[in-house]
Specification:
single chain, alpha/beta, Rossmann fold, GMP Synthetase, Chain A, domain 3, 2 domains, four-stranded mixed sheet, globular, binds adenosine-5'-diphosphate, binds zinc ion
Length: about 425
């Protein structure tokens, strides 16, 4: 098996890709306009007809779709095919509110699994590999997507789903898993458990991990790579655009290649909706140009990142997106300052702490409070109260340097913060609960 799953597409010239995208976009706009009254109404309100869209240069004329539209149109309002043509429903994790559902024809599933196969081949996967999938199976897209991709590549697939970590490890060891697929927070937990069970990183046969579905920092990547003895790759996707595999990392590990033959990416200013020039940081917007049942046009993901067309050493020409360091709605405004949980994670790991932490935000009187609980490691447990206080002050200073505001830091005993088998919960914002 070669270095690519689909070399023709993955290494296509920019000109040919633009042509392909344009043809598919024109067809898709027509399909949506004719079959989705909800979207037709949005287009009519904006005064655009399918005839106005002759290629990707006209993309900006189309209206945006948002998660609020998906909720309003729930469940069938954005369906573009008769239900009799649909074979699957998946649903979001509901991280930021009410779940939304997405529909798939058999062809939609094929294309989605194909995207996941590209990701697996990009990390070196072949039919010789044993691929352990411990993303959740069920309505969540992580398990089914990677499972399908793994089958396509011909890996021996272990459909473990998440949870029961000791059993995960037993199978990993007994069957010699070589590729691990799960959320980064679960990968970290598996690494921690392996160590507790007395295994060294070199004792397992894993070579690569495909980790995504939640934000994670470069520091966290290095931790996971060290604890599992692997190379850890990022993968991105969202239920609304099918699931994981919208973009994936190659061996260069400097961003994720977007499967542009299926998804056209734009970066916009989240405040004004204006399309930003390449290289600017902003909100990622996707247009699905091949999906049949649930084809979202100009869908605002709320994920903040940067696109780059710099030449990649892997030979792929697909545009790359940077790791989304959180969604626009993950951002907390604390005492007027913008704070992303990932900034705090960076400091903690840099200072030698584990990625097990919990951020609690509250308001006392009119003042926002920021409390961060961080687990000590086993050695620190024997420290005196004075030592612990000193370490807490050091962390306060480091976080203050990063954020510009003073947090309270509490070093807590090992294992006292709940581990995640799926997407980790890092923040409790009590201001929203009052
Ligand atoms: P929910 O929005 O309920 O979490 P999904 O399960 O569909 O629903 O998750 C999609 C979201 O997960 C994306 O919009 C993005 O915010 C996040 N995500 C997925 N993959 C990554 C990744 N590799 N890095 C950062 N965030 C990611
Ligand atoms: Zn590359």
């Amino acid at each position: 098996m070669g270095r690519y799953w689909n070399e023709e597409i993955e290494c296509m010239s920019r000109e040919d890709m633009k042509k392909l995208q344009s043809e598919r976009l024109v067809k898709q706009v027509k399909h949506v306009y004719e079959n989705v009254p909800y979207y037709k109404k949005l287009m009519d309100e904006k005064g655009v007809t399918p005839d106005d869209v002759k290629g990707i240069e006209d993309l900006h004329k189309l209206p945006f779709l948002t998660k609020a539209d998906l909720r309003e149109a729930y469940p069938y309002g954005l369906l573009a095919k008769p239900l009799s043509d649909c074979v699957r429903i998946q649903s979001t994790s509901g991280t930021t509110g009410k779940r939304v559902v997405a529909f798939y024809t058999q062809n939609d599933i094929e294309l989605w699994e194909d995207c996941c196969a590209r990701a697996i081949v990009a990390v070196g996967g072949t039919n010789e590999d044993v691929c352990q999938v411990c993303y959740g199976y069920g309505l969540f897209t992580g398990g089914p997507g990677l499972n399908g991709g793994s089958h396509k590549v011909g890996c021996l697939t272990l459909p473990m789903s998440s949870g029961n970590t000791e059993r995960q490890i037993q199978f990993m060891m007994d069957l010699g898993s070589t590729i691990l697929c799960c959320t980064p927070s679960y990968a970290a937990y598996i690494g921690e458990t392996l160590k507790e069970m007395g295994y060294k990183p070199e004792d397992n046969k894993l070579k690569a991990g495909i980790f995504g579905a939640e934000p994670w920092t470069e520091e966290m990547r290095r931790e996971i790579e060290k604890s599992l003895g692997i190379k850890a790759y990022d993968i991105y996707g969202l239920t609304e655009t099918s699931g994981p595999g919208v973009s994936f990392e190659c061996e260069e590990q400097t961003g994720m290649h977007i499967n542009e033959d299926h998804f056209i990416a734009e970066i916009i200013d989240p405040e004004t909706g204006e399309v930003l020039p390449e290289g600017s940081k902003g909100e990622l917007v996707f247009t699905s140009i091949t999906k049949e049942a649930f084809p979202l046009l100009r869908y605002r993901t709320r994920d903040i990142c940067v696109l780059s067309r710099e030449k990649c050493s892997c030979g792929r020409t697909l545009v790359k997106m940077s790791k989304p360091m959180g969604r626009s709605d993950d951002m907390m405004i604390i005492r007027g300052v913008n704070v992303f949980p990932s900034q705090i994670e960076t400091v903690l790991i840099e200072q030698g702490y584990s990625p097990n932490y919990l951020i609690e935000v509250d308001r006392v009187g009119n003042v926002d409070t920021l409390d961060i609980s961080v687990e000590m490691n086993a050695e620190q447990l024997s420290d005196t109260v004075k030592d612990i206080q000193k370490k807490e002050s050091e962390l306060v200073a480091a976080i203050k340097t990063m954020l510009g505001i003073n947090p309270k830091v509490h070093l807590v005993s090992p294992k006292s913060i709940a581990r995640s088998e799926g997407k980790a919960v890092r923040v409790i914002d009590k201001r929203k609960l009052h």
